Amino acid sequence: MMSYSRRRMLLSLSGFGTALVRPQTSRSEATPSRGGTINLLLAAEPPTITTIAQTAYNSVYASPKVTEGLLTYDFDLRPLPQLAIAWSISADGLRYEFQLRPGVKWHDGQKFISADAAYSIAAIKEVHPRGRSTFGNLIGIETPDPLTLVLVLSRPAPYLISALAASETPIVPKHLYEGTRPETNPVNNAPIGTGPFIFKAWARGSHILLERNPDYWDAPKPYVDQVVIRIMPDIAARAAAIETGQIQLAPATPIPLSDLERFEHLPNVALERRGYQYANSISRVEFNLDRPCFQDVRVRRAFAHVIDRKVIHQTINYGYGDVIPGPFSTNLTQFYYGNLRTYPIDLARAEALLDASGLKRGEDGIRLRLTHDYVPSGESYRRGADYIRQALAKVGIAVSVRSQDFAAYTKRVYTDRDFDFTFNGMSNLFDPTVGVQRLYWSKNFRPGVPFSNGAHYSNPKVDALLEAAAVEMDPKTRYQQFLDFQNIVVDDVPDIGIVTQPDLTLFDRKVAGHTVGAEGVAGNLANVHFLA
Questions:
Q1: Measuring CA to CA, which residue among 72, 181, 49, 51 is closest to residue 451?
Q2: Who has the most CB within 10 Å: 224, 313, 351, 383?
Q3: Is 514 exposed, middle or buried (0-12, 13-18, 19+ CB in 10 A)?
Q4: Are 338 and 516 in contact (CB under 8 A)?
Q5: CB half-sphere exposure, 246, CA atoms < 13 A
Q6: Does residue 247 sit in helix, strand or coil?
Q7: Would you state the torsion angle of the CA atoms of residues 240, 246, 249, 252, taken in this order, to the nearest 10 degrees?
Q8: Integer Rg of the chain from CA
Q9: Domain covering 281-500, topology
Q10: What pLDDT is stored for residue 502 in this prediction?
Q11: Could you tell me how far CA 165 lies from the centroid of its own chain?
């Protein structure tokens, strides 16, 4: 039987327009109980709250509670209404028309209208790390009336209908952003939205306080009075807070993987594996190709012959997730290909490649001294960095591991470009054009923009394949384009794909309604409530 994802792609690319409205959804006849405070845990402080120019995982969990999107998505990535209540796509795939929800107000009392959505999408195209690729074919935005939004494309964008969630494409108030630089607008850190929760305070290093929106368009939601986003960098403190019930929601596997089995047997804690279909995260080693040593592909291939994915999978990740040979997650099923070129662990081969590159061992046995920056968003990255340091020492590469907070890390890698190589995590997202292209497309080398092409990788063949796949209407041709792309990337080695992230949510068993679709806890939490 053909998967829904493939059926959806075939429908949207076969020349037939689509029109969708709010579907009937099953729900309990009884309204969930009202009241209470949900404490949501994040392992690192977000660099900003609103995601109009940011894709940091911690911002992604904060933004959608306040600032919504046009659409949301079920577990099969089927679009559902949010600020848009109906939409249609023209037969040629060049015109998207959205009917917007009437009667919605911003938290400051202003009416939400189509001009807000038009401004937001135009800004995201310019300042969002993925905006240039996601909306690359967008040539016009029309607002024929206050509740109609039309996107006009120069070429088809088969992924676009899946790119409109609150975390990915937040709709912000034009009256507070127009005439400013949206990426630096102070409203990003004290957001005004249309969502179920109103921003009240951000105590840096401690918490973000959100309170129930009494005028939310989807009454009687939200059900809880407050959401408090707790910032807990210490992993032991996180585990204790979850176990003792101080935390009700803890997404993105915030405790040591070695503790998961024990937590699965706690009477007050449960695990949810759904709610990550919109992200599809992987871990990877990424090289700074502006560093002279990494401009030689033989050095990068030597690293690939030394860093053992299986060790990271089994020892660092305790067997959670999947080993991957390239840039795609195994969960991105319609594009993943498992038989890519690999670099077997072979220290002798690595030594020969390093010798051939001119990096001979010195009298002290050292060929090269490097600093390794790992992304500070989980214990597995720190432990993985330690393993990589030990592995590279065997071939004469001396590595110093550098720790820093999340804001310092993103500035170092993406603004200052003061790094040698990094062990980080990236989301493939719901489509490679959105989640993967940004990391390898030469036109997305954008210093100052987090989670763009940090390697400064440039290959004209890769650019051509990515640009072709972004507009390709035939699913088979598009699959081949992405397969050709994967083959080139694993040969060039601008990075090394390691494993899929074992993302899951730990939650208090007294809480329900937190994971209702593909966005999981990164959704708006309008449905979350305490069980009676």
A1: 51
A2: 224
A3: buried
A4: no
A5: 11
A6: coil
A7: -30
A8: 23
A9: Dipeptide-binding Protein; domain 3 (3.10.105)
A10: 84
A11: 12
Residue-range domain boundaries for the chain: 281-500
- 340 close to 486: Cβ distance less than 8 angstroms: yes
Q: Which of 391, 410, 221, 197 is nearest to 306 (CA)?
A: 391
* 522 token code pair: 């990164």
Q: How far is CA 166 from CA 69, 71, 169, 405, in A?
A: 4, 7, 5, 26
CA 79 to chain CA centroid, Å, is 18
Give per-10-residue mean pLDDT for the chain (532 aa).
Answer: 34 36 41 94 94 91 98 93 97 95 98 98 93 90 98 95 96 98 96 98 97 98 98 94 97 91 94 91 97 98 98 93 95 91 97 98 97 90 96 98 94 97 94 93 91 96 96 92 98 97 94 96 98 90
In the block, residue with structure tokens 């074919």:
137
Residues 243 and 267: their CA atoms lie apart, in Å, by: 10
**Which has the closest alpha carbon to 240: 262, 272, 271?**
262
Distance (Å, whole) CA 257 – CA 14: 44
Both tokens assigned to 294: 């990494």
How many residues are listed for the chain in this entry? 532
Neighbouring C-beta atoms of residue 340, cutoff 10 Å: 18
Q: CB neighbours (10 Å) of residue 117?
A: 27
Cα–Cα distance for residue pair 319/258, rounded to 1 Å: 10
Instruction: Write the DSSP symbol of residue 378.
Output: S
pLDDT of residue 181: 96
Give every CB contact of residue 145 below 8 A, 6+ residues apart in sequence: 114
Tell me which residue has tokens 């579907």: 23
**Residue 229's Cα: distance from chain center in Å?**
19
Which amino acid appears at position 295 of this protein?
Q
Query: Hey, is 323 helix, strand or coil?
Result: strand
- Is residue 136 within 8 Å of residue 470, measured between CB atoms? yes
CA distance 50 to 107: 15
Q: Considering only the C-alpha atoms of the chain, give the largest distance between any 2 of them, rounded to a whole number of Å.
A: 76
User: In this structure, are residues 354 and 296 in contact, taking their beta carbons and an 8 Å threshold?
Assistant: no
Q: At what angle do helices 475-492 and 460-469 cross, to 10 degrees?
A: 160
- Distance, in Å, from the CA atom of 329 to the CA atom of 300, rounded to the nearest integer, reads 21
Q: How many CB atoms lie within 10 A of CB 440?
A: 25
What pLDDT is recorded for position 30? 67
CA distance 146 to 15: 29
